[in-house]
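Moderator note: this is an archived Q&A kept for reference. The question asked for a predicted structure of one protein chain; the sequence and the answer are reproduced below.
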Amino acid sequence: MYGSPSYARLAPLLALVVIGIVLPPLVPQYFLSLGNTLMMYAILAVGLDLLLGWAGQFAFAHIAFYGVGVYGTVLLQSKLGIPFIPGVLIAAALAGLIAFLIAVAAIRLHSVYLALATFAFAESAQWVFNSWEGLTGGADGLRIAPPSVLGWTTGTDARAFPVIAIILALVIGATMYLTRSRLGRSLCAVRDSEHAAAVSGIDVFRTRIWAFVISGTYAGVAGGTFALFQSFVNPEAFGFSQIVLVLSMVVVGGLGTLPGPLIGAVLLGLLPEIMRTAMRGLFVWQELVYGLILILSMMFMPRGIWGLIAARGGRSK
């Protein structure tokens, strides 16, 4: 449970990188575009789960930090000429800094009060993205020039695919080490009982702040990957529907687990495409469908898909 992950657990990350490098010439652009989107959502969902599933902090500001990552990476490149790698690191650090400030301001709030406060921040951030036309382009959005990653220009989905696969592998690997570290144990203790954690010598406030900062940084990284395969961004990408979608990914996949958010990102990330192609009449109801899936999962599958798989695997032994 704790300590460094074994080589057997890290091996799939190497397989992910190899697939990311080998696959692009072999499949159509459509599937590569879909794969890029799913990997971006996977990073976003893993980051939210660190806050929601591992630390037990019910917050809705995640999508705002994602927006900071997108606009930060794009603007650093277009306005200052900063390449992608330092640009995404700066943007992710900025998202983490804003998450720190939000955490300090809202750290004493719990449950629905924390959710409402962070949701208000997310709505305020989208208003800023919409209104600051001189910087973000406002509702008209911004064009994204193809970033260059160590001389590799990601102008197409095929060229972006291996880069995003490497970033996702690094994020999953970092999460494996984080959740097995002393901080990871502290996050779980705070989630299970803040009073018991405090009695055990854990600084509850500091742990909650770290959860916000790390989660916000992950969202900033996810925003940077958006700039790798998209050519345009506008504030609609950071609205309430995106909050519901990412939250649904985490809950349906399984809170407080690493495989859970990845499973949820794939399943619910594919759902819009399925509704758009096979069930066209339902596409306009996609937000209602997400809500129903979320409610039914919490009622009948509270531990998510991965929790259900793990429970059945335990019974079969």
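Archived answer notes: The chain has a mean pLDDT of 88.
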